Amino acid sequence: MKMLIMKKFNVVFFYLLAGTVFFSGYSQTPSLGTRGKYYIVDYSPSGQSGELQIPVTYTLWVPAGVKTIRGVIVHQHGAGTSASKAGAAAAYDLHWQALARKWDCALLGPSYHVLNEGTEIGPGEAELWYDPRRGSDKVFCNALVALGEKAGHPEIGSAPWCLWGHSGGAQWISQMTVMHPDRVVGAWIRSGGTTKFHSRHPEWPDPELTEAVYSVPIIANAGVREKGSAQFNGSWIGMMATFEEYRPHGAPVGMAPDPVTSHNCGDSRYLAIPFFDACLAMRLPAKGAKTQALKPVDMSTAWLADEFGDAAVPAAEYKGDIKKSVWLPNATVARAWMEYVKTGTVGDLTPPPAPFDVKVEEIPNKGNEISWSADADLESGIGGLIIMRDGKDLTRLPTVVQNGSARQAFQGISFHDTPEIPVPAMRYLDTSSHAGEKHTYTVVTLNGAEVHSKPSDPATVQKGHAY
């Protein structure tokens, strides 16, 4: 096990590449059974003009058994200290990992260590990173090269990106899309936007938009309760500015107002992940292709809807003004979108994968410890798990609703759409079992819509030995 200790701004950060991982004063234990490895690179701030003046940590998850990484899914947190800490857990998200695994992609969680809640360019403030022209673009690209070398996948340094960003992170991915349109598979802009979000000139000059920028699939997403808010109205303006500026150019851009939230991310992941799934299917080059050049968006599969409407139809059937229409990549995303803009969430009728690799160990004087692995359901993640003993329910994990959502989530989803810290391990101690007793255990996964998986294969323990 390798440990790296660094001191920055009188704060000590610890990073362990296996086991428990410590992030700027708090720790977490990654969930078991993620079927992949984590890699971390860390950069100190620069004192040079035009270079990044905020320290940053990048955590990358690479799925096991992948021969060639086809892309990098970036989950970028917003401004402020709480968002920075939450971003440190992004790569440990089982639901986003399921998307990455499906497409042989890596999952990246950046964490910019801001010093305060400031959102401009004062010392330690967030605009120092969320305007990538101030150095975070260069460090990000360097980090991908370094992480690729660590992981034994040098192609990560030049692979295309799916960009997800919240608030200040939405600012960052908007500008990164302008700077690198040929590398962006798709972008999800939550509670932020592009040129009209800021009016800080010359501090934040408007970017130059090109035809290449108008070729990138984008969904702009904001909470309806942000509209008119003294604190968050700019996030609503950002969503509208992105849509209204790009769509008249024929850009594949849609918007998805969230009817139940303000600035928190709510259940937006249940639409964002299907959106990226569609973009990856449409745009990634074939496995083994000699080039990483992205395919153009296939407009023949598009569905369209009215601005602020809640009904989408195939593009050929749409009767309104196409330049003002909400673009959606295919029928699957359109159906999810129609539900989301009405309810703020998306249902799921299909069962999740069954847990696997269940083990039981007798812990002297404590009970039986059950551990397992589980892949997240691509549509709705892992809502919970049921531990069964001798064919009967023993316990359910978790037991509380998370983050004001109507759904439960095993990892617990934060305000920032990242796993709550500490990230739970996939293990449970049955303290009601006694030494010498023989019990059979199985585990069932519940997805985010409460649909049960098949039970895992059974596991037993007898006389202190796992079977």
Note down, in words, how this protein is organized.
The chain is of the alpha+beta class and 467 residues long. It folds into two domains: 341 residues, Alpha/Beta hydrolase fold, catalytic domain (Rossmann fold); 111 residues, Immunoglobulins (Immunoglobulin-like), CATH 2.60.40.10. The protein is built from eight helices and 23 strands. Helix 7 runs antiparallel to helix 8. The protein is globular and about 75 Å long.
Give the helices and strands, then pairings.
Elements: E1 3-8, E2 11-16, E3 21-23, E4 26-28, E5 36-43, E6 56-63, E7 71-76, H1 81-87, H2 94-102, E8 105-112, H3 127-130, H4 136-151, E9 161-166, H5 168-179, E10 184-190, E11 218-223, H6 233-246, E12 253-258, H7 269-283, E13 303-305, E14 312-314, E15 326-328, H8 331-343, E16 356-363, E17 367-373, E18 384-389, E19 392-397, E20 427-430, E21 439-446, E22 459-462, E23 465-466
Parallel strand pairs: 7-8, 7-9, 9-10, 10-11, 11-12
Antiparallel strand pairs: 1-2, 3-4, 5-6, 6-8, 13-14, 13-15, 16-17, 17-20, 18-19, 18-21, 21-22, 22-23
Helix pairs in contact: 7-8
What's this entry about, in short?
By secondary structure, the protein is an alpha+beta fold.
Global morphology: globular
**What's the total helix number?**
8
Return the average pLDDT rounded to an integer.
89
The CATH class name of the largest domain reads Alpha Beta
Q: Specify the CATH homologous superfamily of the largest domain.
A: Alpha/Beta hydrolase fold, catalytic domain
- State the secondary-structure class: alpha+beta
Q: What count of domains describes the coordinates?
A: 2
Say what the CATH topology of the largest domain is.
Rossmann fold
Strand order of the largest sheet: 5-6-8-7-9-10-11-12
Number of strands: 23
Report the biggest beta sheet as strand number plus sense, adding barrel if it closes: 8 strands, mixed
Stretches where pLDDT is under 50 for at least 5 consecutive residues are 1-29
